[in-house]
Amino acid sequence: MEKFVKLTGVAAPLPVVNIDTDMIIPKDYLKTIKRTGLGKGLFAEARYKEDGSENPDFVLNKPAYRNTQILVAGDNFGCGSSREHAPWALLDFGIRCVISTSFADIFYNNCFKNGILPIVVSPENLEKLMDDASRGSNAVLTVDLENQEITGPDGGTIKFDIDPFKRHCLLNGLDDIGLTLEKAASIANFEKANAVAHPWA
Asked: What share of the chain is helix, strand, coil (3-state, %, to 5)?
């Protein structure tokens, strides 16, 4: 998993509450178990018209936001059914960070396992960040996980809290497999000792 230390990128405003996982990645895209290729389906029902052409009014289709890496969204982001395809789609599109006032628990935890940083801020700070994200090509934020702060285009900073263990995993690029491999030597020693103690096993 790619490490997340500091990210500077364009932030897109999505001031919609209760964005559920079906809106993030519609069920039509759930037939695959591959993590790649899902970016085209991200917010598909809002990004595309019925004929398959792009909806020019949707934020991610606007020229300034086509390379968005940070999403500033309304309350309760990632609610609905638990589908890991949702963070996969965000990541495949290029989004590494989502900022909101709250997240659905399963989606929130899935983000960390896939290298995405979900940040919870106060309603007041979300309003400021939403305003920053509305500046088009000037909507550049810097998210510093080590110092736990967000810096806006005007230089102002907002601090955020995060679970120390989840922070450690993102800073070091550790998913569940990576965490297990950190204990590889201990596991190998146990297996050797177990083989001696139980040769019949």
From this structure: 40, 20, 40
Specify the pTM: 0.87
Cβ-based neighbour number of residue 60 at 10 Å: 20
* Token representation of residue 99: 């900022």
Question: What six digits make up the tokens of 121?
Answer: 């801020």
The continuous run of DSSP H or E covering 107 comes out as helix 105-113
What does the block give as tokens for 155? 């230089």
Distance from the first to the final alpha carbon of the chain: 35
Please say whether the dihedral angle defined by the alpha carbons of residues 178, 183, 184 and 185, taken in this order, is positive or negative. Answer: positive
Q: Are the beta carbons of 146 and 125 closer than 8 angstroms?
A: no
DSSP for 128-188, please give it: HHHHHHTTGGG-EEEEETTTTEEE-TTS-EEE----HHHHHHHHTT--HHHHHHTTHHHHH
**Which pLDDT tens digit goes with each residue over 158-186?**
999 999 999 999 999 997 666 655 555 77
Q: How far is CA 106 from the centre of its chain?
A: 12
